[in-house]
Amino acid sequence: MQIRGDVKRVKMIYKEWIRIPEPFRKFVWDSLNGKAPLESIILKVLMYGKFEDIKKLYEMYPEETYTTAFRYPEIKRGIKFWLKRWRDGKADNTGKGNTKKI
Asked: Which pTM was predicted?
């Protein structure tokens, strides 16, 4: 990944240490006693998780996931698209869009 211009460090907002939920343990390799900062967990799931993982994360921490995704430039725009859809209530649960036949 090539970076141009000034790169500024993004400061964490969600610093509270929480127990890592079971489905996300595979993404957090640097935990202490099974705990990690919430924002660190969210960021790793957004970067390395599958669609289903991200959906589950959003269901557990909707505001935190949305806010974190839009603060970090390395989060892919497709992920941001689905987070916006889920927040606006425009997406179904499958991630395949509206599948109703006319």
From this structure: 0.80
Distances (CA, A) of 95 to 3, 10, 24: 31, 29, 20
Digit-coded pLDDT (tens) for 74-92:
999 999 999 999 999 887 6
Assigned token pair, 92 = 């179904």
Q: Is residue 101 classed exposed, middle or buried when 0-12, 13-18 and 19+ CB atoms within 10 A define those classes?
A: exposed
Q: Domain coordinates of the chain in residue numbers?
A: 17-88
CA angle 86, 21, 32 (to 5 degrees): 130
CA distance 99 to 42: 29
Contact 57, 27 (CB under 8 A): no
- For residue 43, what are the contacts with CB-CB under 8 A and spacing of at least 6? 68, 72
